[in-house]
Automatic annotation (TrEMBL):
PANTHER family: PHOSPHATASE YCDX-RELATED. InterPro entries: DNA-dir_DNA_pol_X, DNA_pol_lamdba_lyase_dom_sf, DNA_Pol_thumb_sf, HHH_MUS81, NT_sf, PHP_dom, PHP_phosphatase, Pol/histidinol_Pase-like. Residues 1-326 form the DNA-directed DNA polymerase X domain. GO terms for cellular component: cytosol. This is PHP domain protein. Coiled coil: none annotated. GO terms for molecular function: DNA binding; DNA-directed DNA polymerase activity; phosphoric ester hydrolase activity; zinc ion binding. Keywords: Nucleotidyltransferase, Transferase. It comes from Candidatus Gottesmanbacteria bacterium GW2011_GWA2_44_17. The keyword Ligase does not apply. The lineage of its organism: Bacteria, Candidatus Gottesmaniibacteriota. It comes from the Bacteria.
DNA sequence: GCCGTTTTCGGCCCGACTGTTTTCAGTCG
């Protein structure tokens, strides 16, 4: 059982308790535990194996013992007894937007949806045949809403990679700014927090005339369909099929709106709990002072905030960068003024993961761009250095001797290029190689090859599904070779395609720290690997990071900012990322025997 | 059922929107 499945199970228990009208706080406890598991990047089963379930927020003695039973026996007797009281078809219906536990129960019961596997299809059919509106408590409009919800469910299953969401948002923002009524526009939600995957694009506009701004928004020519248009908000579907929401607010209150809809939900819940202890009640409109010297008979007064900075300051906190708002300790840190000074894109002085088109008959994709274009681009970006990290020559097609001579050939071609450019070349080039880690942890090239490289990057490109202990030993063995300085895209995940490997990262961090090996934050938006929460843990363990775009063509070197976004989500400061060092300093770290 | 800078007992986030049950429950972010 993976995290998503465990989270779903806990969510189903919460929903079942809701239908059965259990204690509301017990319901919330299960639903919070479920969300916490869903947001975990560590494998929860691994946490259980190591006796660390207590570290998961929201998991106390009762839920821990249920999870213990789940991992030992594959099921939880108590949960099954609870579920038995309800139709099994109820649970898939919870995924339809607009359908919660109570409605799902009524629908499943009245429509006789008693199996999980075809529940959504049966609901859809019932809606199309007008069966839903006949149920007490539902009408024609709820029936229509459910059918729209089912469509949205099918569409929502593929979230957007960050750049797709960012580019769509920028198009709409550019259009919105054409209206003189729009005083300010900002991105909201997971997009503003620069999360690796984004659901809908949410935007906020500051205006004194919300109706005019909403009208302008719905007139955007690229909408396929306008879903809703109110006095202060609107929602539309873009021709790409992606949903865009707009919220408006007066400039005087814009700070509170921005804060509220930037989230994350977990951050906001934690912030409200913290604020309540001070007698403040937060909302998207501002802060109500519910305790202390409010005037009698007047009720709580609402305080307005133009900016987020003022909003956080009023709560006794410093402004928290959106990337950090995931309830990972940022409120505590903001209280003590102990927030890190996050690194920024202009501090990046080089790209440590680039593939060229020098043909050494590689095991994986050859780059598309010649070294000359790569260096030109690097100089344009103001880089002091780049690392050429082509894949190793394929092992099956070459003898060891041939591999060595291919690497020598590549070195000569790089050296010749550098000579030809002479003193005018501002960017220095590291000769490296991205070497495959074999299933047993050995490297896929003869050790002799390492002598011809400035440093080595190693990466996993196969056998992603080994069990944790094996995968951990595999990585440790790979990291023990001389000259290995960077572990490339450490988890091997591909967003929306496959999960990363299961591995005891704590052990890997120890090895990296001891041997001065750097963990890559791969900036390719399909990878963004290490993931943000592991970045945070790595930094806490004293491990330093290496940024690389994994570019196979020069255009992709521009994707560095997405890697920087993720390091910021992992609380990285300038000192945590070796790319912030100048050439002389980083050469000392990477080239061990120079 | 969880949790701790007023608490190991007694609390537990806030408001908008929607549709239908004509006064509010359910759902969402």
């Amino acid at each position: 059982m993976n995290n998503r499945e465990v989270a779903e199970l806990l969510g189903n228990v919460a929903a079942a308790y809701e239908v059965l009208e259990e204690n509301p706080f017990k319901i919330r406890a299960y639903s919070q535990a479920g969300e916490a598991v869903a947001n975990l990047s560590e494998d929860i089963r691994g946490d259980w194996e190591e006796g660390k379930l207590d570290d998961v927020p929201g998991v106390g003695p009762a839920i821990r013992s249920h999870l213990d039973e789940l991992f030992r026996t594959g099921k939880v007797k108590h949960f099954e007894e609870v579920f038995k009281k309800l139709p099994a078809g109820l649970f898939p219906l919870l995924n339809v937007p607009g359908v919660g536990p109570k409605s799902a129960f009524k629908l499943a019961k009245q429509l006789g949806i008693d199996k999980e596997h075809n529940a959504i299809a049966r609901l859809k059919k019932a809606g199309e045949q007008g069966e839903i509106e006949k149920i007490e408590g539902f009408g024609k409009e709820s029936q229509e809403k459910i059918l729209v919800g089912i469509e949205e469910l099918l569409r929502r299953e593929n979230k957007m990679l960050l750049p797709e969401a960012a580019e769509l948002a920028e198009r709409v923002i550019e259009y919105l700014k054409k209206s003189p009524q729009v005083l300010r526009v900002e991105m909201l939600g997971s997009l503003r927090r620069r999360a690796s995957l984004v659901g809908d694009v949410d935007l906020a506009a500051a205006t004194k005339n919300p109706e005019a701004v909403v009208r302008h928004f719905v007139d955007f020519p690229e909408w396929k369909q306008v879903l809703a248009e109110g006095g202060i908000t609107a929602r539309a579907i873009h021709r790409s099929g992606r949903q865009v929401d707009l919220k408006t607010e007066s400039p005087e209150r814009f700070g509170a709106l921005l804060q509220h809809f930037t989230g994350s939900k977990a951050h906001n819940v934690a912030l409200r709990e913290y604020s309540l202890t001070k007698g403040f009640s937060l909302s998207e409109h501002g802060i109500k002072i519910s305790k202390g010297p409010t005037l009698p008979r007047q009720g709580p007064t609402l305080k307005n905030f133009k900016t987020e900075e003022e909003f956080y300051k009023f709560l006794g906190l410093v402004w928290i960068p959106p990337e950090m708002r995931e309830d990972r300790g940022e409120i505590e840190a903001g209280k003590l003024n102990g927030l890190p000074k996050l690194m920024e894109l202009p501090q990046v002085k080089g790209d440590l993961h680039i593939h060229s088109n020098i043909d050494i008959e590689t095991s994986h994709d050859l780059g598309a761009s010649p070294l000359s274009e790569i260096v030109n681009q690097a100089e344009k970006m103001g880089y002091e250095y780049i690392a050429i990290t082509d894949h190793n020559p394929s092992v099956s097609k070459h003898s060891e001797k041939q591999i060595v001579s291919l690497i020598k050939m590549r070195n000569e071609s790089i050296d010749e290029f550098i000579r030809s450019r002479g003193m005018s070349m501002k960017t220095r080039v590291f000769k490296s190689l991205e070497i495959d880690i074999l299933p047993d942890g050995r490297l896929s090239v003869p050790e002799e090859v390492l002598d011809f490289l400035d440093f080595v990057m190693v990466s996993i490109h196969s056998s992603f599904r080994e069990i944790r202990a094996d995968q951990t030993q595999r990585l440790i063995r790979a990291l023990s070779y001389p000259k290995v300085k960077i572990l490339g895209h450490p988890t091997g995940r591909k967003l929306l395609e496959r999960d990363g490997i299961d591995c005891d990262w704590g052990e890997i961090f120890v090895v990296c720290k001891k041997r001065n090996i750097y963990l890559e934050v791969n900036a390719n938006p399909r990878r963004l690997d290490l993931p943000d929460d592991l970045i945070k843990q790595a930094i806490e363990a004293g491990v330093k990071l290496s940024l690389g775009t994994d570019s196979h063509q020069v255009e992709n070197m521009e994707l560095m900012r997405y890697g920087v976004d993720q390091t910021r989500r992992g609380w990285a400061e300038r000192k945590d990322v070796i790319n912030c060092l100048g050439y002389n300093e980083i050469a000392k770290l990477l080239i061990v025997n120079c």
